[in-house]
User: What shape does this take?
Amino acid sequence: MAHQDYVSRAQNKKKSPYKGKVAPKPTFTLKFKLSLFLVMLLIGGFIYGLWSIKDNKPPVSPVKIVKEAPQAVKEKALPAPPKEIWAYVDNLKSKEVEVGKYEVKDKGPYKMQCASFRTMRQAEVLKANIAFTGLTAQISESKGKNGIYYKVFLGPYERKREAEKDKHKLKSNNVNGCQIWLWK
Assistant: This one.
């Protein structure tokens, strides 16, 4: 099949069916006119309300205020503040704290298995990738129902936190899928 040359091809001289048509002019609907009238009516009412209250003065009270000669104002002495009793400090002196007795049990050493392969070569490639991150992996052979598998694992770790730290280090170096288990 020959390639087509679109550059040398003449442009389509037909006019687009959409270019000649004029878009309909927008018309104001009855709903729009009514809402516009209502808004104008509310604005007019608000302006009239403001105009009608602009000259309102506060009512003058019929009571006449007579200024008398200043008398000596007797100052009332404030009562003494009540004496506060703090029982908290006294309670602390006699308080006994119960100390809980508990022991942290180590569940045992942990191992982190990263993969299981059918061939030794695949396991060695993963072990090399793990070595590039600065960690040391081991390969163990296990026989299963479907044949021999080669497991790549790291460990033993005394605490799970150490295994998690190495797992994050491997994950940041694109070695994913590692699982942390108790060493059996």
